[in-house]
Structure formats: structure tokens, C-alpha cells
Write a structure and sequence with these properties.
The chain is built from two helices and four strands. With about 100 residues, the chain is an alpha+beta fold. The radius of gyration is 14 Å and the shape is globular.
Length: about 100
């Protein structure tokens, strides 16, 4: 994750694809959030679903949004779209055989 610092959001999007959520940081920067799709056959609680819907309607990032995502990758970019910080939680199971 730290290896992305200094790269642009466009570099990230070319590699990871579009983020699940893209927020303003309120000061000219942007925040790209990636969360994994739910595993097949699993369901989310109604509370988790409500938190996800609330996060999807926000335009400016709020650090409390991470409560809705047990697993996430977040990239914080400045006004020039350079990634300046990252944050993550959880084990991302990216591939299945």
C-alpha cells in the first residue's frame, strides 16, 4: 500500500480499476475507497447495509465511514491527485481457484 504514495489516482485506477467509492476530502483532495464484494452465499446485516448506504450517499469523506467496511483499502490524494497516504483493514481474499 505504501508503494502507491507519490503515484497518481489515475495510475491507481489503471491498475485497480474504478474505486467502489470516491469522496472529496473537503480541502481539494480526493479519497478512493476499495471494498471487496461480499462472498457468494453471504448476507449483510440490516445495520451493515444501512451504514453502507449512508456511506454511498456522502460526498465528503468522514473517517467514521470505515465502521461500515470490515475490509477496505483507502487511498488519500492531494489536490494534484498524488497519493499521499493509505489506510487499510482486513485480509483481502483476491483470488479463488
Amino acid at each position: 500500500m505504501r508503494s502507491w504514495q507519490g503515484h497518481t489516482l489515475d495510475d491507481l485506477f489503471r491498475t485497480w480499476g474504478p474505486p467502489n467509492y470516491l469522496y472529496s476530502d473537503g480541502t481539494g483532495g480526493q479519497i478512493a475507497v476499495y471494498v471487496p464484494a461480499p462472498a457468494a452465499g453471504t448476507t449483510r446485516s440490516s445495520t451493515a447495509g444501512e451504514r453502507l448506504r449512508a456511506a454511498a450517499t456522502q460526498r465528503v469523506y468522514d473517517p467514521g465511514m470505515t465502521d461500515a467496511w470490515p475490509i477496505f483499502r483507502i487511498f488519500f490524494a492531494d489536490a494534484t491527485t498524488r497519493i499521499v497516504r493509505t489506510q487499510w483493514r482486513g485480509r483481502w481474499e483476491c483470488c479463488t481457484s
